[in-house]
User: Fold these one by one.
Assistant:
Number 1:
Amino acid sequence: MKRWILGAMAALAGLARPVPVARALVVALAVVFPAVMFGWSSTEAAVPVPLVCLDPGHGGSDPGAVNGELHEADINLDVAKALAARLAGDEIDSVLTRTDDDSTKSSRDRYEFCNAQNATILVSVHTNSWSDPLVDGRLAIYFHSDDKLLAQALHDAMWSKLQPTAPDPTAFTDFDLKRDALGVLLKSDMPAATAEPVFMSHPDEAARLTEMVSDCSDAFDNSCRRAQIVEALYNGIVEYLASSPPDGEDDGPGNGKGPPEGRGPGR
């Protein structure tokens, strides 16, 4: 419970992102009231249950990146749904910003939905693409200072799972973390990060991404790329939720341009 209290205090002190006063009071009362009424000690008080808000990027009239018949929006939704099921198997609740490919969602629609759900974290699921078909690798994007630990956890998990199983592991590039003012990250009330696990513009990755997660018989089969992505993101989320975020200093408001040149492609 200590890390939840510290997180609320840090946000209120302006060390991370602004938090609505009403929401902060609700969180404080949820922690303090039971302890006062029932005489619980700090170690006995109920620990808030995490809620993961999964955001399948694009959708509706926006297909995202396109490679032949492969649409990024479809991949993102399939991965996010399977990831929700994987988290549920570990008794971690989740919600999705979209559950079908018929609705077009703005960035505002997405972060307002996650905020209204009082989610613990927001993970936006994407699939990368680039003009050079030989480029492959993974990238994690953050904006606020308290997003960075989540982005790092996803970044590390994607590398561990997806680099050894890449079509060409030696060419699977570490694009590191990128700081960018993506719309869905700007006004989320919780730590948020965007995951770009692989490049669907790479012909061999594209061939492996055609198979839906439900059609994969074994997530460790290299042909089941979407299932491997699900497992990587699951590992990153679980690792983050199990860790205790340090107090950390704010990196400042940022300029929305991401890191210096040389960090690789990304949206």
Number 2:
Amino acid sequence: MKETINGMTMEYDPSILSARIKRLMNSMLLNGNEFADYTGIPRSTLNRYLNERRVPKLSYIVKMAERCNVSIDWLLGYSKDQRREDQWGPEIEALVNKYALATEEDKKLVQYILGKYQLNP
């Protein structure tokens, strides 16, 4: 899908945005309604994004990226790196690298422990 804004044409794949939103919802343990409330995006609009039936407004993409602490490029599929440039310091980077090395069983244990620290929408 191509979108032209202010004379600039961009390629956009709605399936990537849908998959990335679902990934965020899953990692945050939020359903669609909770995610919509958390990000401030109307529920019907979020459903259209999830069902690949709407080109996102830039303002909603920015809201989602800021609220979920991810890069806009990652959200739209232009980058494989989920992090914003200013997101993590060395301590968090070290934790993420250690998590990446963990066994699936250990990852489940970490997720279980961190599950008690829910984000408040």
Number 3:
Amino acid sequence: MGQKYGRDELVARMVRAGELEVSGEHQDELADYFAVGYSSHGPGGFESDYAGLAAYFQSLRDAFDDRTIRRCIIVVEGNTIACQTWIEGTFVREFTQSPEGPIPPNGRRIVFDLINIFQMDDNGRFVEDYVRADNRSLLEALRAPAHADFRRSESGLLYVPPGEGLTKWVSGDTYTIKAAKGDTGGSLSFIEAVVPPGVGPIAHAHAAEDEAFFLLDGELEFLDGDRTFIAGPGSFVFIPRTRRHRFKNLGATDARALFLFTPAGPEDFFIEGGDDPEPGKRPVVWDMDRVMQVADIAERTGLTVLPETP
């Protein structure tokens, strides 16, 4: 019996498995991606079966918020896949399975930079995985001093220092997520936005969340159903759930705004679908191919696109 899956299908299965490991969703589906007798070989003599791998990712999910995973530089030869993997998250709770055991949180953004070589069987299931990682650099990041003003108490208090937060590029805009649903118990999410001239999202509505904006710099044109109005610095805008809206920068300089969702949840669209910033570059407006890549995320997060008539 030959291979059941072609190259693209094997890559898609690898990407999907990584997403499930990092998100913690659909663990029964995830288990189907691994063959009986699966083994993982990591740096420093680390050896694990599937149960050990699942426990490791559980500890990672427990310790890090706003997690993302990216795979790139993918090479496929038969049933073997090699790739570079980046897993990123904000270190907010004790990490029990670091290379040197439990480490307390420091509030910093941590990147796990890995090289993976996966061996898959003819049914597209993982049989073996070889992992290469720079544990020394990882430990330096995990042990870095906490920000002097970093606070996260058992009461749920959260303080995010200036310049901190997960930043994503979304169709030309820059969004820095100061608080996501995991930080606030789902009550709200809070985001800082930079909107370049001529840029802004397509008209849309949120199924179950209200949205509010406070303008810091520049001006934004807001759509309210079918009418538009201009909001300048110091303006506050509240948009009820299900209301068709969008904003656009019609000026000549960047606009800056703060906005929040209540309850939290729509920020997952930015976290999962947004682009990672590239030093020295500016975000670009997405073309239709890029928009279609995030269609499933939009549907899952309750975002409905309602384009304006030309």
